[in-house]
Write a structure and sequence with these properties.
There is one protein chain. By secondary structure, this protein is mainly alpha-helical. The protein folds into 3 domains: about 80 residues, Orthogonal Bundle (Arc Repressor Mutant, subunit A); about 90 residues, no CATH class; about 60 residues, Winged helix-like DNA-binding domain superfamily/Winged helix DNA-binding domain (Arc Repressor Mutant, subunit A, Orthogonal Bundle), CATH 1.10.10. It has a two-stranded antiparallel sheet with strand order 1-2. The protein has a two-stranded antiparallel sheet with strand order 3-4. A hairpin with a 2-residue loop joins strand 1 and strand 2. The chain is globular and about 55 Å long. Keywords: DNA-binding, Transcription, Transcription regulation. One of its GO terms (molecular function) is DNA-binding transcription factor activity. InterPro entries: HTH_MarR-typ, MarR/SlyA-like, Tscrpt_reg_MarR-type_CS, WH-like_DNA-bd_sf, WH_DNA-bd_sf. Pfam families: MarR, MarR_2.
Length: about 270
């Protein structure tokens, strides 16, 4: 859906970073990463890539040399303007499988997962319920992701990010799968997947080899170290999932998954 309406020049995480900088010019790199719900390592690599592409300007904070301050370049501001219409279409299309009542229901559920005050949801949806629900969902997903990131760091730790865990988990399910297939299973775009696999290979968690029948394809498998880390992290991942849904009543867990699966066309 993103590639259809927005294109391939910007990924959704890259757009999130540029949008944060459009709203908060001069913010430090850590703050931008938190707003865009990106872990420290992913944020550092993404900023480096956006700087190389001339979309983001980066400088040291004169008051604290350890901090990097970011701003949009003119090209970055133009990229945000050009992509925004497509992003709005993605948000509206995401909701298409849901009826008006279901749209409001999923917004209220996501707001509770995001730990927002009850009054905040009313402000978002009371004026023009269906339209405002469509606009609110992107914000709620980002805030819920921030909650997930915080829980992940508390219960799983910093050895694996959630996307890295998804890659290792996919490889345990599909050992020897090609890189593209693993990226699809882990819901990662091509560029992010390529960088993540390189990082996991460097850490000795993933083994990579060329497909002997097609030299363009990389085949991946877990190393013993990667498998051990995956198994060691699994209990914490379950705790994250339970804590994330804790604001909901038990019967609402199923309903939340039903609505999210329907929106995702699963």
């Amino acid at each position: 859906m993103w590639s259809e309406y927005v294109g391939t020049e910007l990924t959704a995480p890259q757009f999130a970073v540029l949008l944060v900088l459009a709203l908060e010019p001069g913010a430090d790199q850590r703050t931008v990463g938190e707003r865009a719900s990106l872990d420290k390592a992913t944020m550092a690599e993404m900023v480096a890539r956006l700087v190389r592409r001339g979309l983001v300007l980066r400088r040291r904070d004169p008051a604290d040399g350890r901090r990097k301050l970011l701003a949009l370049s003119q090209n970055g501001a133009q990229a945000v303007r050009e992509a925004t219409g497509g992003v709005v279409r993605v948000q509206r299309t995401l909701f298409e499988p849901l009826g008006p009542d279901e749209q409001l229901e999923i917004v209220r559920i996501m707001a509770r997962i995001a730990r927002l005050e009850p009054g905040a949801v009313a402000v978002m949806t009371d004026a023009r319920p269906t339209l405002d629900a469509q606009r609110a969902i992107g914000y709620l997903i980002r805030v819920a992701q921030q909650v997930h990131t915080k829980l992940w760091s508390e219960k799983v730790g910093t050895e694996l990010t959630a996307p890295q865990y998804a890659v290792l988990d996919a490889l345990e399910t599909e050992p020897g799968a090609d890189q593209r297939t693993v990226g699809e299973l882990a819901s990662l775009d091509k560029a992010t997947m390529a960088e993540m696999v390189s990082r996991l290979v460097r850490r000795g968690l993933v083994l990579r080899r060329r497909d002997p029948s097609d030299g363009r394809r990389n085949l991946l498998s877990l190393s013993p170290t990667g498998q051990e880390l995956l198994h060691r992290s699994t209990a914490g991942v379950r705790e994250v999932q339970e804590a994330l849904l804790a604001p909901l009543e038990p019967h609402e867990h199923v309903r939340a998954l039903e609505l999210l699966a329907k929106a995702a066309r699963l």
